[in-house]
Design brief:
The complex is a heterodimer of chains A (674) and B (205). Chain A has 674 residues and is of the alpha/beta class. In chain A, 27% of the residues lie in helices and 18% in strands. In chain A, strand 1 and strand 2 form a beta hairpin. The longest helix of chain A has 16 residues. In chain B, helix 1 runs antiparallel to helix 2. Bound molecules: iron/sulfur cluster and FE2/S2 (inorganic) cluster (2 copies).
Chain lengths: 674, 205
Amino acid sequence: MAKVTVDGIEVEVPNGVSVLQACEAAGKEIPRFCYHERLSVAGNCRMCLVEVEKAPKPIASCAYPVADGMKVFTDSEMVRRGRRGVMEFLLINHPLDCPICDQGGECDLQDQAMAYGLDRSRYMEEKRAVKDKYMGPLVKTIMTRCIQCTRCVRFATEVAGVPELGATNRGENMEIGTYVEKALTTELSGNLIDICPVGALTSRPYAFVSRPWELRKTDSIDVLDATGTNIRVDTRSGEVLRILPRTNDDVNEEWMADRGRFAFDGLKRRRLDRPWIRKNGKLQPASWAEAFAAIAAKLKGVPGEKIGAVAGPLVDAEAALALRDLMAALGSRNLECRTDGAAVDASRRDFYTFNTGIAGIEEADALLIIGANPRIEAPVINARIRKRAVAGGFPIGFVGPRGLDLTYGHDWLGEGGVTLRALAAGTHRFNELLRVAKKPMLILGRGALARADGEAVLAAAWKIAAGNNMLQPEWHGFNLLHHFGGQVAPLDLGFTGGLAVGLEVLWLLGAEPPALPEGAFVIYQGHHGEAAAGRADVILPGAAYTEKDATWVNTEGRVQHGRLAVYPPGEAREDWKILRALSELLGHRLPYDTLDALRAKLAEANPVFAGHGFVPHGCADTSGPTGDPTAVSDAPFALAVTNYWQADPISRASATMAECARVYGAPQARLAAE
Amino acid sequence: MSEEVVQPESFAFDAESEAQIEKILKRYPPGKQASAVIPLLYVVQRQMKRVTGSAWVPVKGMDAVAARLGMAPMRVYEVGTFYFMFNMKPIGTYHLQICGTTPCWLRGSDEVLRACKDAAHVSGYGQTSEDGMFTLSEVECMGACVNAPMLCVDDDYYEDLDYESTVKLIEALRRGERPKPGSVIGRQTSAPEGGPLTLTDVPGE
Ligand code: SF4
Ligand code: FES
Ligand code: FES
């Protein structure tokens, strides 16, 4: 530890930290542009100058290590003059076009020029101008504004793992870009917008849409993948205008995947915003009362075992519980949520969650990936794996399609069943690496379970975990990677009973089962109508994830709450309220009138909902799920998510995502082209 | 930058380049091959000169370097565009590089420039003559100040120039000759003009 005095305040900080961090520890704010705590130190903007006793010149605090007994001054005359000078130089080539800049109001350069800059410019010469660059459909560039901090270059290279950005030419001619024109091939490109301290990289869909002070900010959770990214939904007059990540070091750090960030324009398109009833073979608009009456009339006389309910992949825990309770009241046990056919075993929670935890990846020392492409199934989790891989000493084995670019090197072990059986038998060469590891982990893709031998695949994966030191009292290395933010809650609530044959009434809660029972009366409750809604007899318009106060469970099993940011469109309502209202009409009044009452029931139904967050855990019981690990067929693992940009109903309705899909093509096409 | 230039569709190292690369790579310990990026960019530039008559580095050439050294192409673009010695667009057969730094300038580099413009028919720095023979660049001190002013043609230094000798040099180049590099007034390396002034008396003689 080193004792450092910052403006007279004494702090103790670990050796090797920078002076800037020491100043922060002392509660002093240091202006900065190039420094970012999650990126390597570049030390090229010089905004972070401070004075150190006995040093002849001001020093760049972000790149200067502390020394014991150091005396630092952050507000001396030398520092103030230094900052003013740096700021003046930065602004020499900056266009000062804040009134037409989308960063205005949330721009580091603007704020710091206010706080630390001169109040006028002495620069009368010509400014340089830089041509804008094309970086793809999501990131808009106005490169004349760039102050060449190289944060974006470092982000792309270090975090995203796509070293496609760089600084070409030099001196006055230096430019940031891709040199050869191309769209950045990353699913994390939106983070460049956040990380750019000026308005050089801004959001293309958000261009000229709004000013930050006009926005209402609501904390929520992203559900378009299973990461459970913490988000902030920015709205104005009942419309979602943008979505930004919130920092949560245990989940998404401060990153966010592009689909979650940019697909929200799909919330306004192809919405179910009123009830519909099928009359004479055709769907007709109806009122809530008529829709409820139609359902009540149909349900009368249908025995409970002839009724079934299916929860879709974007379903919140509240809606799932309300549906489950309604079904129970009607006497039905036909509950299902695995519409993709994945043989998820819900008999124990650690069979179907990401037990290591996302932050736990950083502790692991060996990884086996089975039938998943984390890069497109959960880009932010993939960035965490990459972070661990870059730190070194982390062998990664991969079973699945050959030649994938995961943004980190991996050892391709094989395509499918043959390799998996060998790993389970402990005879594969990769077993040796796993066995010597102290904290090995595996990631099993949900897609790998969606095949005829899914049960066997799950059992084999568990056997690999059990046989290779992954299941310890203090360490749980078995992980299932889900695809969407609503897939775990229904598992927690027992939507795994399966559907009996010959159902007469089927309730689809945002679900799209591959096949619907012949002749059944289908009730579709949800926000986007796709094939299943087209086939429905009654449609009940529900709320999307931004439109309700809801509980979400991510792939780790982490319980998080999202808040209502905008009201559902038209006559659509929050889902649990729809079910609660109908239950009354059916004479089975659900025992909750408020969200709090419902959440109390939720905690009763499954104690995990009493808590919040994720509890790191080991594995006390290593006995595995039913299923014969040796029965895995030879078939290769096919990847479940093939079109990252249009993987869910919201993104399929999004024009932004359609453009991305057009530019980037289906991933398979990209692979073939490489 | 790259869009104004007509880039070749492909680039592959030829046998001569491969031989050079093999030698260059041996200089670096295993795992540090990326250090060879600058020498390899020279290999590309020289091969372009051999094959097309114009010494420049196309994007595909940088891609080839990146592939050979296991680097991201962007990292090679950064190096290639940073250094002035690598031409990012085609140049003339001869690259006339005039040193304009203070010693050369004091000793008459303006005259060398005038001679180049007149004899090579180049309008100014960064330009190529219409016949495609000459490209003119201004460079910073080349380390030959003692024999200033100097002109570097491709890789050869010509020193102690004035207007007339520069014109003569360019005309010779135009004829396809390659005058002997070094001082054009016959100075022995960097010894004083007219021969050595010190150590002239060899003891015992
Ligand atoms: S574009 Fe933004 S992040 Fe990138 S170097 Fe310029 S100012 Fe920095
Ligand atoms: S923040 Fe320290 S030099 Fe940029
Ligand atoms: S100044 Fe011309 S070579 Fe040094």
